[in-house]
Design goal:
The complex is a heterodimer of chains A (336) and B (292). Chain A is of the alpha/beta class and 336 residues long. Chain A has helices at residues 9-14, 17-31, 49-54, 66-78, 89-95, 97-106, 134-139, 152-164, 211-225, 243-253, 268-279, 300-307, 311-322, and strands at 35-39, 59-61, 82-88, 112-116, 145-147, 169-172, 195-198, 203-207, 230-234, 237-239, 255-263, 284-290. Chain A has 13 helices and 12 strands. The longest helix of chain A is centred in the N-terminal third of the chain and has 15 residues, at 17-31. The relative contact order of chain A is 0.12. In chain B, helix 1 (5-29) crosses helix 2 (34-51), helix 2 (34-51) runs parallel beside helix 3 and helix 4 packs parallel to helix 5. The chains are: A alpha/beta (336), B alpha/beta (292). Chain A binds chain B through residues 33-34, 36, 57-58, 60, 62-63, 65, 67-68, 70-81, 83, 98-99, 102-103, 106-108, and chain B through 62, 66, 68, 108-110, 116-118, 120-121, 123-124, 126-136, 138-139, 145, 158, 161-162, 164-165, 168-169.
Amino acid sequence: MAGGFVYNAIDQTELSTAEIYGKAIADIVQKDPKVVAVTPDLAKSTKLGEVLKVCPERVFNVGIAEQDMFGVAAGMARAGLIPFASGFSAFTSMRACDQLHTDICYQNTNVKIIATHAGTSFGQAGSTHHAIVDLAITRAMPNLTVIVPADGLETANAVNAAYENFGPYYIRINRGFDRVLYDSQDYGFEVGKAVEVHPGTDITVIACGSCVFQAREAAKFLENADGLKVRVLNMHTIKPIDRDAIMKAVLDTRRIITVEDHSTIGGLGSAVAEVVVEGGKACAFRKLGHPDKFAPIGLHEDIMAEVGIDSNGIIAAVRDVMKMDFEEDDNWDDEF
Amino acid sequence: MALSKQEWLALEKKAFELRKLCLQTTVWAGSGHIGGGMSIMDLLTVLYHKYLNIKVEDPQWEDRDRFILSKGHAAIAYAPVLCDKGFNDVEMLKTFNLSGSKMGMHLDSNKVVGVDASTGSLGHGASIAAGTALAARVLGKDFLTYVATGDGELGEGSNWEGFMTMNHYQLSNCIVFIDRNHCMIDGPTEDVMKLEPLADKMTAFGFNTIVVDGNNIGALCDAIDTAIERSKEPCAPTCILMDTKKGAGIKTMEGDYLWHYGAIDDALFEKFNAELEEDYKARVARAEKEGK
Protein backbone atom coordinates (compact mmCIF):
# COMPACT_ATOMS: atom_id res chain seq x y z
CA MET A 1 0.00 0.00 0.00
CA ALA A 2 1.00 3.60 -0.33
CA GLY A 3 2.74 5.22 2.59
CA GLY A 4 1.51 8.23 4.48
CA PHE A 5 -1.83 8.46 6.17
CA VAL A 6 -4.36 5.69 6.26
CA TYR A 7 -8.11 6.00 6.14
CA ASN A 8 -10.60 3.23 6.54
CA ALA A 9 -14.02 2.17 5.40
CA ILE A 10 -15.68 4.07 8.19
CA ASP A 11 -14.05 7.28 6.98
CA GLN A 12 -15.24 6.54 3.51
CA THR A 13 -18.80 5.92 4.64
CA GLU A 14 -18.92 9.17 6.49
CA LEU A 15 -16.79 11.36 4.26
CA SER A 16 -17.06 12.22 0.59
CA THR A 17 -14.13 11.84 -1.80
CA ALA A 18 -13.36 15.52 -1.51
CA GLU A 19 -13.53 15.42 2.26
CA ILE A 20 -11.14 12.50 2.45
CA TYR A 21 -8.84 14.38 0.11
CA GLY A 22 -9.09 17.51 2.26
CA LYS A 23 -8.28 15.47 5.34
CA ALA A 24 -5.36 13.77 3.59
CA ILE A 25 -3.87 17.15 2.67
CA ALA A 26 -4.49 18.48 6.16
CA ASP A 27 -2.57 15.55 7.62
CA ILE A 28 0.36 16.13 5.26
CA VAL A 29 0.41 19.86 6.01
CA GLN A 30 0.62 19.13 9.72
CA LYS A 31 3.49 16.74 9.15
CA ASP A 32 5.58 18.81 6.75
CA PRO A 33 6.10 22.57 7.20
CA LYS A 34 7.00 22.93 3.51
CA VAL A 35 3.57 21.88 2.31
CA VAL A 36 1.15 24.69 1.45
CA ALA A 37 -2.27 24.89 -0.15
CA VAL A 38 -3.26 27.36 -2.85
CA THR A 39 -6.84 27.92 -3.94
CA PRO A 40 -8.81 30.21 -6.25
CA ASP A 41 -11.71 31.08 -3.92
CA LEU A 42 -12.56 27.40 -3.60
CA ALA A 43 -11.24 26.45 -0.18
CA LYS A 44 -14.67 25.22 0.81
CA SER A 45 -15.70 23.68 -2.51
CA THR A 46 -12.42 21.78 -2.85
CA LYS A 47 -12.29 20.86 0.84
CA LEU A 48 -9.03 22.67 1.40
CA GLY A 49 -11.00 24.11 4.27
CA GLU A 50 -9.75 21.11 6.22
CA VAL A 51 -6.28 22.63 5.99
CA LEU A 52 -7.64 25.99 7.09
CA LYS A 53 -8.77 24.36 10.31
CA VAL A 54 -5.35 23.01 11.21
CA CYS A 55 -2.91 25.41 9.58
CA PRO A 56 -4.54 28.58 8.23
CA GLU A 57 -1.21 30.35 7.74
CA ARG A 58 -0.30 27.88 5.01
CA VAL A 59 -3.45 28.28 2.93
CA PHE A 60 -3.19 30.96 0.25
CA ASN A 61 -6.33 32.11 -1.46
CA VAL A 62 -5.54 33.97 -4.67
CA GLY A 63 -9.12 34.84 -5.47
CA ILE A 64 -10.85 33.78 -8.65
CA ALA A 65 -7.67 33.52 -10.67
CA GLU A 66 -6.56 30.06 -11.75
CA GLN A 67 -3.71 31.38 -13.87
CA ASP A 68 -2.35 33.24 -10.86
CA MET A 69 -2.82 30.15 -8.70
CA PHE A 70 -0.54 28.09 -10.93
CA GLY A 71 2.06 30.83 -11.31
CA VAL A 72 2.10 31.36 -7.56
CA ALA A 73 2.34 27.60 -6.96
CA ALA A 74 5.20 27.29 -9.45
CA GLY A 75 7.09 30.13 -7.75
CA MET A 76 6.53 28.53 -4.37
CA ALA A 77 7.75 25.15 -5.60
CA ARG A 78 10.88 26.61 -7.17
CA ALA A 79 11.65 28.19 -3.82
CA GLY A 80 11.38 24.86 -2.01
CA LEU A 81 7.76 24.49 -0.96
CA ILE A 82 5.38 21.68 -1.94
CA PRO A 83 2.15 23.39 -3.01
CA PHE A 84 -1.16 21.60 -3.43
CA ALA A 85 -3.14 23.76 -5.85
CA SER A 86 -6.79 22.88 -6.09
CA GLY A 87 -9.54 24.17 -8.32
CA PHE A 88 -12.28 22.99 -10.65
CA SER A 89 -10.81 20.76 -13.33
CA ALA A 90 -12.53 22.72 -16.10
CA PHE A 91 -10.49 25.76 -15.16
CA THR A 92 -7.26 24.16 -13.98
CA SER A 93 -6.97 22.49 -17.37
CA MET A 94 -8.35 25.18 -19.65
CA ARG A 95 -8.31 28.66 -18.08
CA ALA A 96 -4.83 28.07 -16.71
CA CYS A 97 -3.60 25.78 -19.47
CA ASP A 98 -0.61 27.94 -20.41
CA GLN A 99 0.52 28.25 -16.79
CA LEU A 100 0.10 24.49 -16.32
CA HIS A 101 2.16 23.90 -19.44
CA THR A 102 4.90 26.47 -18.95
CA ASP A 103 5.19 27.33 -15.27
CA ILE A 104 4.49 23.87 -13.87
CA CYS A 105 5.31 21.21 -16.46
CA TYR A 106 8.06 22.87 -18.53
CA GLN A 107 9.89 23.86 -15.37
CA ASN A 108 9.14 20.42 -13.87
CA THR A 109 8.05 22.00 -10.61
CA ASN A 110 6.93 20.04 -7.56
CA VAL A 111 3.33 21.26 -7.76
CA LYS A 112 0.46 18.91 -6.90
CA ILE A 113 -2.78 19.81 -8.66
CA ILE A 114 -6.07 18.54 -7.33
CA ALA A 115 -8.58 19.10 -10.10
CA THR A 116 -12.06 18.75 -8.66
CA HIS A 117 -15.59 18.57 -10.09
CA ALA A 118 -14.19 16.50 -12.97
CA GLY A 119 -16.03 15.03 -15.90
CA THR A 120 -19.73 15.74 -15.60
CA SER A 121 -19.79 15.35 -11.81
CA PHE A 122 -20.99 18.97 -11.55
CA GLY A 123 -23.58 18.05 -14.16
CA GLN A 124 -26.24 20.59 -13.37
CA ALA A 125 -23.75 23.42 -13.80
CA GLY A 126 -23.63 22.79 -17.52
CA SER A 127 -20.79 22.62 -20.00
CA THR A 128 -18.98 25.66 -18.62
CA HIS A 129 -18.27 23.55 -15.53
CA HIS A 130 -17.95 20.12 -17.14
CA ALA A 131 -14.44 18.88 -17.69
CA ILE A 132 -14.57 16.39 -20.52
CA VAL A 133 -11.41 17.47 -22.33
CA ASP A 134 -8.97 17.85 -19.44
CA LEU A 135 -7.38 14.43 -19.80
CA ALA A 136 -6.69 15.10 -23.47
CA ILE A 137 -4.93 18.31 -22.46
CA THR A 138 -3.01 17.12 -19.42
CA ARG A 139 -2.02 13.76 -20.85
CA ALA A 140 -0.04 15.51 -23.57
CA MET A 141 2.00 17.60 -21.16
CA PRO A 142 5.56 16.35 -20.58
CA ASN A 143 6.64 15.70 -16.96
CA LEU A 144 3.04 15.57 -15.71
CA THR A 145 1.70 12.47 -13.95
CA VAL A 146 -2.08 12.17 -14.42
CA ILE A 147 -4.19 10.21 -11.93
CA VAL A 148 -7.97 9.67 -11.86
CA PRO A 149 -8.87 8.04 -8.53
CA ALA A 150 -11.97 5.86 -8.39
CA ASP A 151 -13.15 6.82 -4.89
CA GLY A 152 -12.20 8.53 -1.66
CA LEU A 153 -9.70 6.00 -0.39
CA GLU A 154 -7.94 5.90 -3.74
CA THR A 155 -7.81 9.69 -3.69
CA ALA A 156 -6.04 9.52 -0.34
CA ASN A 157 -3.58 7.04 -1.84
CA ALA A 158 -3.01 9.29 -4.83
CA VAL A 159 -2.47 12.36 -2.65
CA ASN A 160 0.06 10.50 -0.53
CA ALA A 161 1.86 9.23 -3.63
CA ALA A 162 1.97 12.72 -5.11
CA TYR A 163 3.43 14.08 -1.90
CA GLU A 164 6.08 11.39 -1.70
CA ASN A 165 7.27 11.66 -5.31
CA PHE A 166 8.91 14.73 -6.85
CA GLY A 167 7.33 16.35 -9.87
CA PRO A 168 4.03 17.78 -11.07
CA TYR A 169 0.88 15.70 -10.51
CA TYR A 170 -2.62 16.22 -11.85
CA ILE A 171 -5.11 14.35 -9.66
CA ARG A 172 -8.59 14.48 -11.14
CA ILE A 173 -11.43 13.92 -8.69
CA ASN A 174 -15.14 14.44 -8.82
CA ARG A 175 -17.41 16.76 -6.96
CA GLY A 176 -17.23 14.41 -4.02
CA PHE A 177 -20.19 12.09 -4.05
CA ASP A 178 -18.62 9.02 -5.60
CA ARG A 179 -19.81 5.47 -5.10
CA VAL A 180 -17.46 3.58 -2.81
CA LEU A 181 -15.21 1.10 -4.62
CA TYR A 182 -12.72 0.07 -1.96
CA ASP A 183 -13.36 -0.84 1.66
CA SER A 184 -9.72 -0.44 2.58
CA GLN A 185 -6.84 1.76 1.52
CA ASP A 186 -4.62 -1.30 1.46
CA TYR A 187 -5.20 -2.83 -1.98
CA GLY A 188 -1.83 -2.24 -3.58
CA PHE A 189 -2.08 1.25 -5.07
CA GLU A 190 0.96 2.12 -7.11
CA VAL A 191 1.33 5.01 -9.55
CA GLY A 192 1.31 3.66 -13.10
CA LYS A 193 -0.02 0.21 -12.17
CA ALA A 194 -3.61 -0.76 -12.96
CA VAL A 195 -5.59 -2.61 -10.30
CA GLU A 196 -7.80 -5.56 -11.22
CA VAL A 197 -11.09 -5.06 -9.39
CA HIS A 198 -12.90 -8.00 -11.03
CA PRO A 199 -11.31 -11.09 -12.59
CA GLY A 200 -12.22 -12.25 -16.08
CA THR A 201 -11.02 -13.95 -19.23
CA ASP A 202 -13.72 -13.19 -21.83
CA ILE A 203 -13.39 -9.44 -22.15
CA THR A 204 -11.64 -6.58 -20.33
CA VAL A 205 -13.24 -3.33 -19.30
CA ILE A 206 -10.65 -0.66 -18.55
CA ALA A 207 -12.09 2.23 -16.58
CA CYS A 208 -11.07 5.21 -14.49
CA GLY A 209 -12.69 7.45 -11.92
CA SER A 210 -16.37 7.00 -11.18
CA CYS A 211 -16.69 4.56 -14.10
CA VAL A 212 -14.69 1.88 -12.26
CA PHE A 213 -17.50 1.23 -9.81
CA GLN A 214 -19.97 1.09 -12.70
CA ALA A 215 -17.77 -1.36 -14.58
CA ARG A 216 -17.46 -3.65 -11.58
CA GLU A 217 -21.23 -3.64 -11.10
CA ALA A 218 -21.63 -4.49 -14.79
CA ALA A 219 -19.13 -7.34 -14.46
CA LYS A 220 -20.99 -8.80 -11.47
CA PHE A 221 -24.28 -8.63 -13.36
CA LEU A 222 -22.90 -10.18 -16.54
CA GLU A 223 -21.34 -13.02 -14.60
CA ASN A 224 -24.73 -13.92 -13.13
CA ALA A 225 -26.92 -13.15 -16.12
CA ASP A 226 -24.75 -14.20 -19.08
CA GLY A 227 -22.06 -16.31 -17.46
CA LEU A 228 -19.47 -13.91 -18.83
CA LYS A 229 -16.11 -13.48 -17.18
CA VAL A 230 -15.43 -9.75 -17.41
CA ARG A 231 -12.08 -8.47 -16.24
CA VAL A 232 -12.25 -4.93 -14.88
CA LEU A 233 -9.09 -2.88 -14.60
CA ASN A 234 -9.03 0.30 -12.56
CA MET A 235 -6.65 2.35 -14.70
CA HIS A 236 -6.23 5.08 -12.11
CA THR A 237 -3.04 6.40 -13.69
CA ILE A 238 -3.64 7.77 -17.16
CA LYS A 239 0.00 8.79 -17.52
CA PRO A 240 2.24 6.89 -17.34
CA ILE A 241 -0.23 4.30 -18.60
CA ASP A 242 0.21 0.66 -17.54
CA ARG A 243 1.22 -0.83 -20.88
CA ASP A 244 1.82 -4.28 -19.41
CA ALA A 245 -1.69 -4.55 -17.96
CA ILE A 246 -3.20 -3.45 -21.27
CA MET A 247 -1.22 -5.88 -23.38
CA LYS A 248 -1.91 -8.70 -20.95
CA ALA A 249 -5.62 -7.92 -21.28
CA VAL A 250 -5.33 -7.96 -25.08
CA LEU A 251 -3.58 -11.33 -25.07
CA ASP A 252 -5.80 -12.86 -22.39
CA THR A 253 -9.23 -11.62 -23.50
CA ARG A 254 -8.85 -10.20 -27.04
CA ARG A 255 -11.69 -7.79 -26.37
CA ILE A 256 -11.26 -4.38 -24.77
CA ILE A 257 -13.73 -1.70 -23.74
CA THR A 258 -12.64 1.55 -22.16
CA VAL A 259 -14.97 3.66 -20.01
CA GLU A 260 -14.45 7.21 -18.82
CA ASP A 261 -16.36 10.33 -17.87
CA HIS A 262 -14.46 12.27 -20.54
CA SER A 263 -14.55 12.78 -24.28
CA THR A 264 -13.73 9.69 -26.30
CA ILE A 265 -11.12 11.89 -27.95
CA GLY A 266 -7.81 12.08 -26.15
CA GLY A 267 -8.52 10.53 -22.75
CA LEU A 268 -8.24 7.05 -21.26
CA GLY A 269 -9.69 5.38 -24.37
CA SER A 270 -7.16 7.06 -26.62
CA ALA A 271 -4.30 6.24 -24.26
CA VAL A 272 -5.29 2.56 -24.22
CA ALA A 273 -5.85 2.52 -27.99
CA GLU A 274 -2.34 3.83 -28.57
CA VAL A 275 -0.89 0.97 -26.57
CA VAL A 276 -3.11 -1.62 -28.26
CA VAL A 277 -2.24 -0.45 -31.77
CA GLU A 278 1.47 -0.26 -31.01
CA GLY A 279 1.24 -3.76 -29.50
CA GLY A 280 0.39 -5.17 -32.90
CA LYS A 281 -2.11 -7.76 -31.66
CA ALA A 282 -5.63 -7.73 -33.09
CA CYS A 283 -8.50 -7.28 -30.71
CA ALA A 284 -12.02 -5.96 -30.64
CA PHE A 285 -12.00 -2.48 -29.17
CA ARG A 286 -14.57 0.10 -28.13
CA LYS A 287 -14.34 3.41 -26.33
CA LEU A 288 -17.16 4.51 -24.05
CA GLY A 289 -17.25 8.14 -23.02
CA HIS A 290 -18.69 11.42 -24.16
CA PRO A 291 -19.15 11.58 -27.93
CA ASP A 292 -17.75 14.58 -29.78
CA LYS A 293 -20.31 17.02 -28.47
CA PHE A 294 -20.99 18.96 -25.30
CA ALA A 295 -22.60 16.96 -22.52
CA PRO A 296 -26.21 17.48 -21.44
CA ILE A 297 -27.19 19.23 -18.21
CA GLY A 298 -28.35 17.07 -15.33
CA LEU A 299 -27.48 14.97 -12.35
CA HIS A 300 -24.19 13.14 -12.72
CA GLU A 301 -25.82 9.71 -12.69
CA ASP A 302 -28.38 10.81 -15.27
CA ILE A 303 -25.69 12.11 -17.60
CA MET A 304 -23.68 8.91 -17.15
CA ALA A 305 -26.77 6.89 -18.07
CA GLU A 306 -27.55 9.04 -21.10
CA VAL A 307 -23.99 8.84 -22.40
CA GLY A 308 -23.81 5.11 -21.67
CA ILE A 309 -20.97 5.06 -19.17
CA ASP A 310 -23.00 3.67 -16.28
CA SER A 311 -23.39 -0.04 -15.55
CA ASN A 312 -26.29 -0.43 -17.99
CA GLY A 313 -24.31 1.21 -20.78
CA ILE A 314 -21.30 -0.95 -20.04
CA ILE A 315 -23.43 -4.13 -20.00
CA ALA A 316 -24.87 -3.27 -23.41
CA ALA A 317 -21.44 -2.52 -24.82
CA VAL A 318 -19.98 -5.76 -23.47
CA ARG A 319 -22.76 -7.80 -25.04
CA ASP A 320 -22.27 -6.00 -28.33
CA VAL A 321 -18.51 -6.41 -28.41
CA MET A 322 -18.84 -10.08 -27.45
CA LYS A 323 -20.73 -10.60 -30.74
CA MET A 324 -17.71 -9.55 -32.76
CA ASP A 325 -16.17 -12.59 -34.36
CA PHE A 326 -13.04 -11.00 -35.66
CA GLU A 327 -10.46 -13.68 -34.99
CA GLU A 328 -11.35 -16.17 -37.67
CA ASP A 329 -13.07 -13.90 -40.14
CA ASP A 330 -11.33 -12.34 -43.14
CA ASN A 331 -14.32 -10.16 -43.86
CA TRP A 332 -13.93 -7.27 -41.40
CA ASP A 333 -16.72 -5.22 -42.97
CA ASP A 334 -19.42 -6.92 -40.93
CA GLU A 335 -17.73 -6.60 -37.62
CA PHE A 336 -18.62 -3.10 -36.51
CA MET B 1 23.19 52.90 0.20
CA ALA B 2 23.62 55.85 -2.11
CA LEU B 3 25.47 55.23 -5.32
CA SER B 4 28.94 56.76 -5.34
CA LYS B 5 30.23 58.41 -8.49
CA GLN B 6 32.93 55.76 -8.70
CA GLU B 7 30.38 52.96 -8.48
CA TRP B 8 28.14 54.68 -11.00
CA LEU B 9 31.01 54.95 -13.47
CA ALA B 10 31.88 51.27 -12.92
CA LEU B 11 28.29 50.27 -13.59
CA GLU B 12 28.20 52.41 -16.74
CA LYS B 13 31.31 50.63 -17.95
CA LYS B 14 29.74 47.25 -17.26
CA ALA B 15 26.47 48.26 -18.96
CA PHE B 16 28.45 49.43 -21.99
CA GLU B 17 30.38 46.15 -22.18
CA LEU B 18 27.16 44.16 -21.82
CA ARG B 19 25.43 46.19 -24.54
CA LYS B 20 28.32 45.41 -26.86
CA LEU B 21 28.07 41.73 -25.94
CA CYS B 22 24.31 41.82 -26.57
CA LEU B 23 24.91 43.37 -29.98
CA GLN B 24 27.56 40.76 -30.73
CA THR B 25 25.22 37.96 -29.60
CA THR B 26 22.55 39.26 -31.95
CA VAL B 27 25.02 38.96 -34.80
CA TRP B 28 26.03 35.45 -33.74
CA ALA B 29 22.38 34.47 -33.41
CA GLY B 30 21.52 35.89 -36.83
CA SER B 31 18.82 38.10 -35.33
CA GLY B 32 17.20 38.85 -31.99
CA HIS B 33 14.96 40.95 -29.77
CA ILE B 34 17.63 43.57 -29.48
CA GLY B 35 15.38 46.63 -28.99
CA GLY B 36 13.81 45.40 -25.77
CA GLY B 37 17.12 43.89 -24.72
CA MET B 38 18.85 47.25 -24.88
CA SER B 39 16.03 49.05 -23.05
CA ILE B 40 16.34 46.75 -20.04
CA MET B 41 20.13 46.40 -20.01
CA ASP B 42 20.70 49.07 -17.38
CA LEU B 43 18.37 47.26 -14.99
CA LEU B 44 20.04 43.89 -15.64
CA THR B 45 23.43 45.49 -15.07
CA VAL B 46 22.62 47.08 -11.73
CA LEU B 47 20.77 44.00 -10.47
CA TYR B 48 23.58 41.58 -11.31
CA HIS B 49 26.43 43.90 -10.38
CA LYS B 50 25.08 45.75 -7.38
CA TYR B 51 21.92 44.37 -5.81
CA LEU B 52 21.30 40.65 -6.24
CA ASN B 53 22.58 38.56 -3.32
CA ILE B 54 23.67 35.53 -5.33
CA LYS B 55 26.59 33.11 -5.48
CA VAL B 56 27.96 32.28 -8.89
CA GLU B 57 29.65 29.19 -7.43
CA ASP B 58 26.35 28.04 -5.89
CA PRO B 59 23.62 29.04 -8.36
CA GLN B 60 20.87 27.15 -6.49
CA TRP B 61 21.77 28.65 -3.09
CA GLU B 62 18.40 28.60 -1.38
CA ASP B 63 18.83 31.98 0.32
CA ARG B 64 19.68 33.82 -2.90
CA ASP B 65 17.70 36.74 -4.22
CA ARG B 66 15.59 35.77 -7.22
CA PHE B 67 15.20 37.59 -10.52
CA ILE B 68 12.39 36.71 -12.89
CA LEU B 69 12.52 38.12 -16.39
CA SER B 70 8.85 38.10 -17.28
CA LYS B 71 9.64 39.66 -20.66
CA GLY B 72 11.50 36.49 -21.53
CA HIS B 73 12.27 37.60 -25.08
CA ALA B 74 14.89 39.93 -23.62
CA ALA B 75 17.05 36.82 -23.29
CA ILE B 76 19.30 38.29 -25.96
CA ALA B 77 20.36 40.73 -23.20
CA TYR B 78 19.89 38.40 -20.23
CA ALA B 79 22.05 35.57 -21.58
CA PRO B 80 25.11 37.83 -22.05
CA VAL B 81 24.63 39.12 -18.49
CA LEU B 82 24.52 35.56 -17.06
CA CYS B 83 27.52 34.45 -19.10
CA ASP B 84 29.56 37.52 -18.29
CA LYS B 85 28.74 37.00 -14.62
CA GLY B 86 30.19 33.49 -14.81
CA PHE B 87 27.08 31.34 -14.53
CA ASN B 88 27.65 30.00 -18.04
CA ASP B 89 30.56 29.94 -20.48
CA VAL B 90 30.62 33.06 -22.65
CA GLU B 91 31.30 30.75 -25.58
CA MET B 92 27.70 29.54 -25.24
CA LEU B 93 26.55 32.89 -26.61
CA LYS B 94 27.94 31.87 -30.00
CA THR B 95 25.28 29.15 -30.06
CA PHE B 96 22.35 31.42 -29.09
CA ASN B 97 19.28 30.54 -31.17
CA LEU B 98 21.14 27.83 -33.05
CA SER B 99 19.93 24.24 -33.39
CA GLY B 100 20.99 22.09 -30.49
CA SER B 101 21.89 25.05 -28.27
CA LYS B 102 20.95 25.25 -24.60
CA MET B 103 20.11 28.88 -25.24
CA GLY B 104 17.01 29.52 -27.25
CA MET B 105 15.26 32.81 -27.83
CA HIS B 106 13.67 32.40 -24.38
CA LEU B 107 15.84 30.91 -21.64
CA ASP B 108 15.04 27.55 -20.05
CA SER B 109 15.74 27.56 -16.31
CA ASN B 110 16.56 23.87 -16.44
CA LYS B 111 19.22 24.40 -19.12
CA VAL B 112 20.78 27.80 -18.53
CA VAL B 113 22.47 28.26 -15.16
CA GLY B 114 21.32 31.25 -13.13
CA VAL B 115 17.84 31.53 -14.62
CA ASP B 116 15.19 31.47 -11.89
CA ALA B 117 12.15 30.95 -14.11
CA SER B 118 11.54 29.73 -17.65
CA THR B 119 9.68 32.57 -19.29
CA GLY B 120 8.72 33.53 -22.80
CA SER B 121 4.97 33.16 -22.70
CA LEU B 122 4.12 36.69 -21.59
CA GLY B 123 2.24 37.57 -18.44
CA HIS B 124 3.62 34.78 -16.25
CA GLY B 125 6.37 36.46 -14.25
CA ALA B 126 4.26 38.42 -11.79
CA SER B 127 2.47 35.37 -10.39
CA ILE B 128 5.67 33.32 -10.22
CA ALA B 129 7.33 36.21 -8.40
CA ALA B 130 4.39 36.50 -6.00
CA GLY B 131 4.66 32.79 -5.22
CA THR B 132 8.41 33.08 -4.71
CA ALA B 133 7.95 36.00 -2.33
CA LEU B 134 5.21 34.14 -0.44
CA ALA B 135 7.55 31.15 -0.15
CA ALA B 136 10.16 33.40 1.45
CA ARG B 137 7.58 34.35 4.07
CA VAL B 138 6.58 30.71 4.72
CA LEU B 139 10.22 29.62 4.96
CA GLY B 140 11.20 32.56 7.15
CA LYS B 141 13.81 33.78 4.69
CA ASP B 142 14.67 37.36 3.88
CA PHE B 143 15.68 37.01 0.25
CA LEU B 144 14.14 39.44 -2.23
CA THR B 145 12.34 38.63 -5.46
CA TYR B 146 12.73 40.98 -8.39
CA VAL B 147 10.54 40.70 -11.47
CA ALA B 148 10.72 42.66 -14.71
CA THR B 149 7.83 42.87 -17.15
CA GLY B 150 7.58 44.61 -20.47
CA ASP B 151 5.00 47.30 -21.08
CA GLY B 152 3.23 45.76 -24.07
CA GLU B 153 3.22 42.55 -22.04
CA LEU B 154 0.79 44.18 -19.62
CA GLY B 155 -1.98 43.47 -22.10
CA GLU B 156 -1.97 39.94 -20.71
CA GLY B 157 -4.55 39.97 -17.91
CA SER B 158 -2.62 37.41 -15.88
CA ASN B 159 -0.12 40.15 -14.92
CA TRP B 160 -2.86 41.95 -13.09
CA GLU B 161 -3.85 38.79 -11.24
CA GLY B 162 -0.28 38.55 -10.01
CA PHE B 163 -0.23 42.24 -9.07
CA MET B 164 -3.41 41.75 -7.04
CA THR B 165 -1.80 38.90 -5.14
CA MET B 166 1.30 40.99 -4.42
CA ASN B 167 -0.87 43.73 -3.00
CA HIS B 168 -3.23 41.43 -1.11
CA TYR B 169 -0.37 39.73 0.70
CA GLN B 170 1.59 42.99 0.99
CA LEU B 171 4.59 41.46 -0.70
CA SER B 172 7.04 44.30 -0.28
CA ASN B 173 9.76 41.63 -0.54
CA CYS B 174 8.84 41.48 -4.22
CA ILE B 175 9.95 44.40 -6.38
CA VAL B 176 8.28 44.91 -9.74
CA PHE B 177 9.95 46.65 -12.67
CA ILE B 178 8.09 47.66 -15.80
CA ASP B 179 10.29 48.31 -18.82
CA ARG B 180 8.22 51.14 -20.28
CA ASN B 181 9.93 51.43 -23.66
CA HIS B 182 6.66 52.49 -25.30
CA CYS B 183 6.95 50.03 -28.18
CA MET B 184 5.49 46.70 -29.12
CA ILE B 185 5.67 44.61 -32.27
CA ASP B 186 2.96 46.38 -34.24
CA GLY B 187 3.76 49.92 -33.14
CA PRO B 188 3.78 52.37 -30.23
CA THR B 189 1.93 50.96 -27.21
CA GLU B 190 -0.55 53.82 -27.16
CA ASP B 191 -1.50 53.10 -30.78
CA VAL B 192 -1.81 49.33 -30.37
CA MET B 193 -3.46 49.17 -26.93
CA LYS B 194 -3.47 52.10 -24.54
CA LEU B 195 -1.59 51.60 -21.29
CA GLU B 196 -1.75 55.11 -19.88
CA PRO B 197 -2.19 56.25 -17.21
CA LEU B 198 0.08 53.34 -16.27
CA ALA B 199 1.55 54.77 -13.07
CA ASP B 200 -1.96 55.50 -11.81
CA LYS B 201 -3.02 51.97 -12.66
CA MET B 202 -0.18 50.49 -10.64
CA THR B 203 -0.97 52.79 -7.73
CA ALA B 204 -4.63 51.82 -7.97
CA PHE B 205 -3.55 48.18 -7.78
CA GLY B 206 -1.95 48.95 -4.44
CA PHE B 207 1.66 49.57 -5.41
CA ASN B 208 4.04 52.16 -4.14
CA THR B 209 4.85 53.38 -7.64
CA ILE B 210 8.11 55.09 -8.52
CA VAL B 211 8.53 56.52 -12.01
CA VAL B 212 12.15 56.76 -13.02
CA ASP B 213 14.38 57.11 -16.06
CA GLY B 214 15.22 53.45 -16.53
CA ASN B 215 18.20 54.25 -18.68
CA ASN B 216 19.79 56.44 -16.01
CA ILE B 217 21.73 54.16 -13.69
CA GLY B 218 21.96 56.73 -10.91
CA ALA B 219 18.22 57.37 -10.85
CA LEU B 220 17.45 53.68 -11.18
CA CYS B 221 19.63 52.80 -8.19
CA ASP B 222 17.96 55.48 -6.08
CA ALA B 223 14.56 53.90 -6.84
CA ILE B 224 15.79 50.39 -6.04
CA ASP B 225 17.30 51.61 -2.77
CA THR B 226 13.89 52.99 -1.80
CA ALA B 227 12.17 49.70 -2.71
CA ILE B 228 14.68 47.67 -0.69
CA GLU B 229 14.22 49.93 2.31
CA ARG B 230 10.47 49.30 2.12
CA SER B 231 10.97 45.53 1.78
CA LYS B 232 12.03 45.10 5.38
CA GLU B 233 8.46 44.99 6.69
CA PRO B 234 5.36 43.65 4.94
CA CYS B 235 3.70 46.63 3.26
CA ALA B 236 2.56 47.73 -0.17
CA PRO B 237 4.94 46.34 -2.79
CA THR B 238 6.97 48.73 -4.90
CA CYS B 239 6.62 49.09 -8.64
CA ILE B 240 9.48 50.85 -10.37
CA LEU B 241 8.04 52.11 -13.63
CA MET B 242 11.12 52.55 -15.78
CA ASP B 243 10.75 55.06 -18.56
CA THR B 244 13.14 53.62 -21.15
CA LYS B 245 13.92 53.74 -24.84
CA LYS B 246 13.62 50.79 -27.12
CA GLY B 247 17.16 50.12 -28.33
CA ALA B 248 18.67 52.38 -25.64
CA GLY B 249 22.32 53.11 -26.36
CA ILE B 250 22.09 52.73 -30.13
CA LYS B 251 20.88 56.04 -31.53
CA THR B 252 19.57 54.66 -34.80
CA MET B 253 17.44 52.16 -32.92
CA GLU B 254 16.19 54.30 -30.06
CA GLY B 255 12.43 54.63 -29.86
CA ASP B 256 11.84 52.72 -33.09
CA TYR B 257 9.32 49.92 -32.61
CA LEU B 258 10.58 48.26 -35.79
CA TRP B 259 13.66 47.27 -33.79
CA HIS B 260 11.62 45.00 -31.54
CA TYR B 261 13.30 42.20 -33.43
CA GLY B 262 15.94 42.49 -36.08
CA ALA B 263 18.97 41.22 -37.89
CA ILE B 264 22.27 43.04 -38.07
CA ASP B 265 24.70 42.85 -40.97
CA ASP B 266 28.40 43.82 -40.89
CA ALA B 267 27.80 47.43 -41.83
CA LEU B 268 25.12 47.90 -39.16
CA PHE B 269 27.28 46.10 -36.62
CA GLU B 270 30.07 48.61 -37.15
CA LYS B 271 27.67 51.56 -37.10
CA PHE B 272 25.88 50.37 -33.95
CA ASN B 273 29.14 49.72 -32.12
CA ALA B 274 30.20 53.26 -32.92
CA GLU B 275 26.89 54.58 -31.62
CA LEU B 276 27.33 52.58 -28.42
CA GLU B 277 30.74 54.22 -27.99
CA GLU B 278 29.20 57.67 -28.38
CA ASP B 279 26.41 56.83 -25.95
CA TYR B 280 28.91 55.57 -23.41
CA LYS B 281 30.83 58.84 -23.56
CA ALA B 282 27.63 60.78 -22.90
CA ARG B 283 26.75 58.46 -20.02
CA VAL B 284 30.17 58.88 -18.44
CA ALA B 285 29.79 62.65 -18.72
CA ARG B 286 26.37 62.41 -17.03
CA ALA B 287 27.71 60.26 -14.22
CA GLU B 288 30.63 62.65 -13.73
CA LYS B 289 28.21 65.57 -13.55
CA GLU B 290 25.38 64.06 -11.50
CA GLY B 291 27.33 61.57 -9.39
CA LYS B 292 28.43 62.31 -5.85
